[in-house]
Write a structure and sequence with these properties.
Length: 85
């Protein structure tokens, strides 16, 4: 695992611990699994694909009581900025 991917995994674990929204924590766990499984893919692409899928699922459910969509967007931006360092 390269340094960038290790940093991303570390940040994902921290964000899951800090996140209060049950829906957002579950979504971050799915992102963690996606990053671990997509060894050859660019981490930024994995994050964007994950975000698109999660937002689409929230849109289909037409229910977002915990404002998870906004939280996920903020997490995606923060995680992508970690990768730029």
């Amino acid at each position: 695992m390269d340094m960038q991917r290790e940093q991303l995994m570390y940040m994902l674990v921290l964000r899951q611990i800090e996140e209060q929204s049950r829906l957002a924590r579950a979504a971050l766990a799915r992102l963690e699994a996606s990053v671990a499984g997509a060894k050859e893919a660019d981490p930024n692409t994995v994050i964007l694909d994950w975000l698109a899928a999660e937002l689409m699922a929230l849109h289909r459910s037409e229910s977002d009581p915990e404002h998870a969509g906004t939280r996920l967007l903020k997490h995606a931006i923060a995680l992508c900025s970690v990768l730029k360092r």
